[in-house]
Amino acid sequence: MFFWLIPGITGIAVFLLALSLQTWSKNLRLRKEALHVVAAADVAHAPRPGFMVLMLSRLLPWLAGWQAAWMPETWKTRTEQRLARLAVWPWRFAAEWLVLKELSALAGWGGAFFLNAGFFPSLLLGAAAFFLPDLWLKEKETARKKDVMRELPDFLDLLASCLEAGLGFEQALAVILARDQKSPLHREFSEAARSMRMGVSRQDALQAMGARVADPDFKTFITMVIQAERLGVSVAKTLKAQASQLRGKRFQSVEKQALEAPVKLLIPLIVFIFPVVFIVLFGPIIIRFMKGF
After folding, report:
1. Which residues contact 191 (CB under 8 A, 6 or more apart)?
2. How many Å apart are CA 147 and CA 135, to the nearest integer?
3. CA 61, CA 64: separation in Å to the nearest integer?
4. What is the mean pLDDT of residues 74-97?
5. Residue 3 confidence class, pLDDT cut points 50, 70, 90
6. Would you list the domain boundaries of the chain?
7. How far from 230 is each of 202, 208, 227, 240, CA to CA, in Å?
8. Are 192 and 208 in contact (CB under 8 A)?
9. 2, pLDDT greater than 60
10. Most exposed residue of 29, 97, 163, 190, measured as fewest CB within 10 angstroms of its CB?
């Protein structure tokens, strides 16, 4: 009685397969063009990829094309923005990131099942492994943000010195970026300088850089620079004041971490060190007391 459903289901499956193949071919073409542009720009600094990277580079685009049509657009945009902030990462598309998470989940499930952990423990381990790439990406973003904010005060002092020497803002950036440094802050300002050379206004380029870094103190620095230009205030003095303020915040953060260290040491002391001390001190006494009875 349900045989009439077979043609409808087959038609839907064929339609979805055709849509997936069309999206896959389009993404593959765009990916090749993007990789060609990136390779032409960074060929001098690109490290030689390993065997695993080469294998995944061939596998991920093929697998990503089958599910690119079903991804939510908001998640896709947010994920690709997060991946674009990574310094060295060959796969910039959200579909490829989703495939990488699925492969991680499959590896976690297969490893647990191979060790005879049972079906449900293996399923739980696979679900946990599915989110491991997200944890790695979050850790990379946090480390990158810390590196940017740690180097920002010195960068602002150099920029202020160049401005006081009579250089313009773009010229001062070019002088500083000419130094052979490939730090996250260097890459962010290089991207902003490239945008300004392509015709983007300085305000829009700086605001885009602040959105990429996504740190409140960094956005405050961007806002102060833009306001100083609008009001005609000396940008060099503003940069020096901002650098001094950022150093003060960093020192306060270090002092806060130093004051919190004794409190954080209480748990290891209570859980690991105090029981061993008690066993060493009172263990022989308890043994002798038990032998006496």
Report:
1. 209, 212
2. 18
3. 5
4. 75
5. very low
6. 64-130, 150-259
7. 12, 18, 5, 18
8. yes
9. no
10. 29
CA nearest to 184, candidates 77, 54, 79, 89? 89
Q: Give the containing element (helix H, strand E) for 51.
A: helix 51-64
Q: What CATH number should be reported for the domain whose range is 150-259?
A: 1.20.81
Average pLDDT of the chain is 76
> Tokens representing 57?
């580079």
The first and second tokens of residue 80, run together, are: 């690709």
Can you tell me which residue has the tokens 């492969």? 103
The overall longest dimension of the chain from CA atoms, in Å, is 91
Query: What are the tens digits of pLDDT across the range 273-282?
Result: 888 888 888 8
Which residue's structure tokens are 């989940």? 105
Task: Give per-residue pLDDT as tens, 74-84.
Answer: 887 888 778 87
Q: Token pair of 81, please?
A: 């923005």
Residues 6+ apart with CB under 8 A from 122: 109, 112, 113
